[in-house]
Amino acid sequence: MDNSRAQWGSKLGFILAAAGSAIGLGNIWKFPGRAFEGGGGTYVLIYLCMVIFLGAPLMLTELSIGRASQANVVGAFRNLEHKGWSWVGWVGVIGAFIITCYYSHVGGWVLRYVYGYAVEAPTIYADPLGYFYATLGLGADGNTFFPWVAILFAALFMVCNAVVIIRGVEGGIERFNKIGMPALFVILIVLLVRSVTLPGAEDGLKYMLSFDWDKVSFNTVLSALGQSFYSLSIGMAILITYGSYLPKAENLPKNTALICAMDTIVAIIAGFIIIPAVFATLGPDQVGKGGGFAFVSLAGVFESMPGGRLFGVLFYLLLLFAALTSCISLIESIVAFLTEHFSWGRKATTIWVCFVMFLIGCLYTCSQAAYPLKGIWYDAVNGVTFPALCDAMEFLTDRLMIPFCALGCCLFAGWVWKPESAIAEIEQHGVRFGLKKVYSVLVKFVAPVAILAILVLSLVTGTTLS
Ligand code: PHE
User: Fold this and answer.
1) For the CA of 23, the nearest atom of ligand 1
2) Which of 233, 242, 320, 405 most suits a substitution to test ligand 1, by most atoms within 8 Å of the C-beta?
3) Per-residue pLDDT tens digits for 255-264
4) For a tag on the chain, would you pick the N or C end, based on fewer CB atoms within 10 A?
């Protein structure tokens, strides 16, 4: 074992970094729209079940694999004497690579909006959709042009990530999260108070607390499952990397519970910020506008609330912190793999990897509105299709690679490495794990069956997962 391997400087540092990875665009941008479509309170309830019964055991599994092996995602399986399972790590690294290509560009849009609300809010208010499209290279007259604004901001966002990663685990990632995460919680609470006290917010609140089982379909359940994995950063083997930096005396089940709780609370608070605010200012028809939701629909909200511009800047700053801490975790797991596997230097690897991912991400941004770049996809309902490249990249990771890697992890932990080994790793230095029987059943039977169901059904029915 490599004694010089990096470690977290403190328990709080790790928790904040792992929570930082989990809390991201998924919580604040995707969750509220999905909660609205899935029937408000009903969706939240289903989502909670997914986190408790599938998300938490999988997170615990990834953390124990990482800490037991003291290696990056690919090396982890080799160090545990099961080299044949390294493919799980490969799926994780490649998935993280593809996600970072687009995640960093969406992060760039967020940065653009921080700037936009600070400097030219009236322009956004005048035509929210036009402003969004203009960022992406589509003019009001339908003409397309090179989306240099989006690309410039994505480059800036990527540079911020690289600077933190180059500084290392403790000096960079941990330190950044120690500042960014508390700031995020403060902004979240300020926005929550503002949103629920808006006149007319009660309808939105009622909706988020109502249980409308008629709105629940199989699709809702699948969507909650995919969303919970994405949101908890599971199935990307990131938590294997983060777990590998953890000291042996750390209590993994407690940390897992804390991280899951923080991630879920942020998602729910984001729902309670956005839905009541949109109900209060725009009316229910405007809620849940898919990808442009956080960028387009919210403009009307900020415009119509007193001090809206300030809250606009705060909101996008919040999203920016969340996106940065998640993106950092994605890049760290790729860099950890490359530096350990090929013995490359950390600084050069980080710069090169970030540069290549940024370039590929440019294709993602260009395919949003300006250029008809296509990917390829297959499902049993629609056969072979050629969706926009941006959609194809998201399908590939969210519908295929995340569930595939998660399935690999729990099959490995449940049947090859065995839950007993995970439990032995967990129960060191006097740590007691009261739920070990439940954990074994979940990881051996419940999780693999549920994940296999997602994988198969998403391909058979063409269901959107994330
Ligand atoms: N969990 C992050 C979010 O909610 C996204 C993410 C997925 C980060 C996978 C790392 C790995 O936005």
Assistant:
1) 4
2) 233
3) 999 999 999 9
4) N
Ligand 1 atom at minimum distance from 263 CA: 4
Structural domain of 64: 11-370
Quote the number of domains for the chain.
Answer: 1
Q: How far apart are CA 415 and CA 328, in angstroms?
A: 32
> Residue 461 falls within a domain, yes or no?
no
Q: Domain for residue 438, yes or no?
A: no
Contact indicator for 10, 238 with CB cutoff of 8 Å: no
Report the CATH number at residue 55: 1.10.4160.10
CA 171 – CA 174 distance, rounded (Å): 6
Q: What is the rounded distance in angstroms from the CA atom of residue 312 to the CA atom of residue 294?
A: 11
* pLDDT given at position 283: 65
**CA 44, CA 105: separation in Å to the nearest integer?**
28
Ligand 1 mean position to 120 CA, how many Å?
30
Task: Give me the DSSP letters along 31-88.
Answer: HHHHHHHTTBHHHHHHHHHHIIIIIHHHHHHHHHHHHHHTS-HHHHHHHTT-GGGHHH
Residue 82 — φ and ψ, nearest 5°?
A: -135, 65
pTM of the predicted model, to two decimals? 0.88
Cα-to-centroid distance, 143 and ligand 1 (Å): 34
pLDDT digit string, tens, across residues 310-324: 989 988 988 898 899
Contact (Cβ atoms closer than 8 angstroms) between residue 127 and residue 341 = no
Q: Flag whether 428 is in a domain.
A: no
Q: Which of 59, 462, 113, 458 is nearest to 258 (CA)?
A: 59
| 258 part of a folded domain | yes
Backbone angles phi and psi of 147, in degrees to 5: -75, 60
pLDDT at 44 over 90: yes
